[in-house]
Design brief:
This protein is mainly alpha-helical and 88 residues long. It has one domain. It is built from four helices and no strands. α3 runs antiparallel to α4. It is globular. The termini are far apart.
């Protein structure tokens, strides 16, 4: 089995860097930082960033995150929207 190298690692889109001011953006890992990435993009992301989010994590994984963490980490308005979208 091949070990992942820098070419195989998927990175966050550059235009999302403003969503993570307290992080070293270039060293963010999409698996290790999955929770904060989902939260910030669902809360304040653009349509293009949302497309990337769903292409990267899949609808089911994002919906599970909303079920488990959305009520605490999203605004009431965003949580209500995503509950409707995912029929939660």
């Amino acid at each position: 089995m091949k070990k992942p190298n820098a070419k195989n690692i998927c990175h966050l889109p550059e235009d999302t860097s403003w969503l993570f001011p307290e992080y070293e953006f270039a060293s963010m890992d999409i698996e290790r930082h999955k929770g904060v990435i989902i939260e910030r993009i669902l809360e304040r992301g653009t349509w293009e960033q949302l497309r990337w989010l769903f292409a990267t994590y899949g609808e089911q994984q994002v919906a599970e995150w909303v079920k488990k963490h959305g009520f605490r980490l999203l605004s009431k308005r965003s949580f209500a929207l995503w509950k409707l979208v995912f029929n939660i």
